[in-house]
Design goal:
Layout: H1 24-58, H2 68-71
């Protein structure tokens, strides 16, 4: 963590290139960074999924536009008289 909150720093992992692989210390640093980042990313994912599902739960008669193709199946449409 950065001791000065006014001076934000972005920490990125190490990347291997063709001519040289990562050292064990660099690999360990990447694993530590990944372990710290994963719970945060999962939390954001849960919030994004919840935001879409809350619309379906509150208004089941009108699904969000992302679900419209799923809700219009041929089995649920009434037959047409000819």
């Amino acid at each position: 963590m950065d001791p000065d909150p006014g001076d934000a720093v972005i920490i990125t992992g190490y990347k291997a290139i063709r001519t040289s692989k990562l050292t064990p210390a660099q690999r360990h640093a990447n694993q530590a960074l990944s372990a710290a980042r994963a719970p945060v990313e999962h939390s954001f994912s849960d919030l994004k999924n919840w935001r879409i599902l809350i619309r379906v739960r509150l208004n089941p008669g009108k699904p969000p536009s992302c679900c419209a193709p799923c809700s219009s199946s041929p089995a649920t449409t009434p037959p047409v008289d000819r």
